[in-house]
Amino acid sequence: MLAVWFREEAAPGHAVEWRVRRSLFSGRSDFQTIDVLELESFGRALVLDGIMQTTTDDEFIYHEMLAHVPLLAHPTPRRVCIIGGGDGGLAREVLRHHEVRHVVMVEIDRMVVEVAKKFLPAHTAALSDCRLVIHYADGAAFLRDLPSNERFDVILVDSTDPEGTGPGNWLYTPEFHRHVRDALNPGGIFAQQTGTPFFNPEVVQRVGQSVGERFAWAGVYWSVVPSYPGGFFTFAVGSLGPAVDAPRREANWPTAWYTGAIHRLAFSLPPYLSRTLPAGLANGGRARVNPQR
Predict the structure, then answer these.
(1) Which domains does the chain have, with CATH numbers?
(2) Cβ neighbour number for residue 24 with a 10 Å cutoff
């Protein structure tokens, strides 16, 4: 019997493959193709438009780093908005913070949530938390049209990469980052995944530039995510108040990856990457005196 492999092209001339035990789901929503695969390594995987999004064996790294770095740098994160995150893993980590009173998750694709609930129960374990409200809507439009009396302490973007015609493309633009800034409370913090710089350096460069121009403090941090091409993964973060390169509080629950020491070290970037970023954005971030609107 021939082995079945899932193949993802990371860049021209480079691809990664995973041996597939079986396909658990395959369908198409109004926005994208959705597949759930059971892999020989990495467990179950959610694949959108042919791109690996999350696997059960290493998802904790990505979700802990995207959630806990900004939340533990904020002194009192009460209200949190998640743009995307339909697999539920980010909401699970956000809701571990007892300080958080209200979470709004804005996911454009209802089918992603439904499929995750069925096939990725460890991801979606917190979606029934009474502090969480899910809106099935375009995240960029949601923030653009947000009433002035509704603001968030932390906004996190957990979206697909800006490739092709996918629904996440608009979430990497300067206009979106302006809406994010306006949707934050004073001292608010924003973080967004910016992909792997080995294969798509333009993403972290472009987002870093945009965030750096609009936030009083901005930086780039990184982590290892084994199932993503190259394994080296980045995040851009902006703050209207405190620096984010060190935690203000400790995680008072068991973590699998995040620690305060890892938080600090994540902002130390290798020279090859820091040299490609806007001046001052690497190795601890930097403050701007007059950020743009």
Answers:
(1) 4-53 (2.30.140.10), 59-287 (3.40.50.150)
(2) 15
pLDDT single digits (tens) 14-28: 899 999 999 999 999
* pTM check: above 0.70: yes
Within 8 A by CB and 6+ apart from 199, the residues are 10, 11, 14, 229, 230
Q: Please, what sign has the CA dihedral across residues 161, 177, 208, 245?
A: negative
> Among 49, 109, 158, 245, which one carries the catalytic annotation?
158
Give CA angle at 163 (285, 61), nearest 5°: 50
Structure tokens at 33: 């193709």
Residues 86-142 pLDDT 10s: 999 999 999 999 999 999 999 999 999 999 999 999 999 999 999 999 999 999 999
145 among known catalytic residues: no
Q: Which two tokens stand for residue 256?
A: 């699998």
Dihedral of CA 220/202/164/12: which sign?
negative
User: DSSP readout, the chain?
Assistant: -PPEEEEEEEETTEEEEEEEEEEEEEEE-SS-EEEEEEESSSSEEEEETTEEEEETTTHHHHHHHHHHHHHHHSS---EEEEEE-TTSHHHHHHTT-TT--EEEEEES-HHHHHHHHHH-TTTSTTTT-TTEEEEES-HHHHHHT--TT--EEEEEEE---S-TT-TTGGGGSHHHHHHHHHTEEEEEEEEEEEE-TTT-HHHHHHHHHHHHHHSSEEEEEEEE-TTSTTSEEEEEEEESSS-SSS-SS---S--SS--HHHHHHTT---HHHHTTSSTT-SSS-EE-SS---
